[in-house]
Every structure is written in structure tokens, then in C-alpha cells.
Amino acid sequence: MLRDRVRLNVALTRTIDAPWVERIDTYLDGRWNAHHFLVRSPDELAGIARLPALVCEGYRDLGMQGALREDVTRPGAERSSAAAG
């Protein structure tokens, strides 16, 4: 937290083009992208309507490593119910 604003980041497996994104840092040959932005007021934060969905996407794909599981699952390969759950 800065004096008059909050710096936020969301990591995604894709890049997004949005006016509130200040910078995107790409890691691991594009496997994940850190989107950096600043919020200066509660109204500005509320104006980012997609933010909750983007945070959930980042958590699913990178936090829970869902993107890694998708990479190792080959088309046509059977998965056990334990692995699928």
C-alpha cells in the first residue's frame, strides 16, 4: 500500500488488454503474465468490473496450478475419478 493508492497484481496464463493495466511482466516463456495496476479510490476499484473473475482465474490456473494439470493431460488419455476430482 502506498500513501495515496494501492498497487495490485494479478497473474494470468494469458495477457489482457485493459486501460487499467499499467504493465505486464511475462515469465516462463509466456506461461504466466503478471498484470500490474494501481487503484487510487474505492470507486476506481469498483470500476474494474472483471477483477473478481480475473482473480479467480489466476488463482485457479496458477495458485492451484490448474494450468499445469491441463498441460500434462493429453487428449484421449483417461483420467481416474480421483485425479479428475
Describe the structure.
This protein is of the alpha+beta class and 85 residues long. It has one domain (6-73). It has helices at 42-46, 51-63, 66-72, 81-84, and strands spanning 6-12, 23-27, 32-39. It has a 3-stranded antiparallel β-sheet with strand order 1-3-2. Strand 2 (23-27) and strand 3 (32-39) form a beta hairpin. The protein is elongated. The termini are far apart. The relative contact order is 0.17. Mean pLDDT is 80; it is low at 72-85.
Topology readout:
Layout: E1 6-12, E2 23-27, E3 32-39, H1 42-46, H2 51-63, H3 66-72, H4 81-84
Antiparallel strand pairs: 1-3, 2-3
Features:
85 residues; alpha+beta; three-stranded antiparallel β-sheet
Instruction: State the helix count.
Output: 4
| Rounded average pLDDT | 80
Q: Looking at the structure, what is the overall shape? A: elongated
Largest sheet: 3 strands, antiparallel
Question: Would you summarize the structure shown here?
Answer:
This protein is of the alpha+beta class and 85 residues long. 34% of the residues lie in helices and 24% in strands.
